[in-house]
# Entry
Amino acid sequence: MRVKYVLSEVMVGLWRNVTMTIAMIITMAVSLTMLGASGLIYTKVADMKELYFENIQVSIFLDNEVTEQQKAEIQAKLDADPLVAETTFVNKDDAYKRFQDMFRDSPDLLSAVKPDVLPESYRLKLVNPQEYKAINEQYSNVEGVDQVVDQSRVLDKIFNLFTAGQNIALVAAIAMAVAALLLVANTIQVAAYSKRREVAVMKLVGASNWFIQAPFVLEAVVAGLIGSVLALGALIGLKVFLFDGALAALQGLFAPVSWGEVFLAFPLMAGVGGLISAVTAWVTLRFYLRV
Amino acid sequence: MTKTYPKASRPSLDNVSVAIEKGEFVFFIGPSGSGKSTIIKMLLHEVTPNKGRIIVNGKDVTSMRSWKRPAFRRSIGCVFQDFRLLPNRTAYENVAFALEVIGKTKAVARRVVPEVLELVGLGGKEHRYPHELSGGEQQRVAVARAFVNRPLILLADEPTGNLDPDTSIEIMRLLDRINRTGTTVVMVTHDSNIVNQMRRRVIEIESGRIVRDQARGVYG
# Structure
């Protein structure tokens, strides 16, 4: 009977104040969507870093007038370098093949460039891709080296963009969470006020504190959970229409967002939504009902 | 004990010491603001004294933690001048509510509630709403709700304050019957008629001090 009583009180409570309940659910949903999205971006960036850094290369381009002896010295230095995992030499013909492959859609450019214009280079795989700076310092001033180019520098810029997006989503999530929190506090106050007679009688006859508080706290938690279900819907929408729809062409560039990851975000959102609601409701009641 | 409310120039109760035996019927009388209602609030653990101790049913209420208050209150029934009934519930539901929120089953309520409503003289009116009942009848519902748990103590804060003299007498008869079951009754009032008719112990308070404590007393 007590469980039934509490549950029916929760439903009555949510319905009595339905506009406020809707406002509470919507803000909660938006906040949790932002939270879930930022969580997804976070795991994606980590995935992509792993993916890219595994294949990342440092290229050492050689001067066109480089001598055989200089080449041999560089090769020896690279072979002895503990930072370098793997070295590949790309001669002018290889470079031209790569060039042709890369620009196969631009025949004008292809016809303008002759194989001997392209520089020879070493392509290095590093033991730890982050140590690119050390390579740059060691080799950029060696005789015969034109320049050292690191792909991770470009990638870092892209990742910074992602991290900025993640931070924006997080800030938005926090701002909306504060709004949701205030709405929960407000809703609970209104609910407690509209049930003040019942609460007074319950306190008088000695109903236990949890029994007085439970309907209010659960009311907030149910709203929070509904909000997190809506947020899950929003994330599914994001995946279907944005990642698999509009951004499908960039699929090779970004690590794809899997369904598993989308659904894994749900426990996070539901947990945060439910917990924030419960704590806010409970604290509000302590001040408002003094139970 | 002494109770001073914050911002008050003089204590609401000043060095008051009273012992009330089990099964007694006691009137607290005195003018408005004399501190009568503060006594009820302290017996309910709603306010605590600044000095001194309050012992109810052998338990020291003064040092009681607030989380123990609900269990403590189950041993005390309470009736007020303004009845404090739930307007959207019938007489039966009002009494049953008090049982259900402390964890009694519906089956218990079905057995006990009609019994206690019969006892207070509301047999046949169980399914009336408070606005369909007279003031006296509403107070009977309140008494039924206070008594349904068979408390050791019944506190009544001016229970006849909103009732006409005849109805007041009926409520007093009811409280007297409850007292005869062994329940201690503590009643705050300034209804001289009632005090004079009942001839029970009278404790008069003025400006926070006991000025008279008389067995079988009159209003004075």
About this structure: Chain B touches chain A through 22 residues (CB under 8 Å). The two ends of chain B are 25 Å apart (CA to CA). Chain B has seven helices and eight strands. The helical segments of chain B are 36-43, 69-73, 91-100, 106-119, 135-147, 165-180, 192-198.
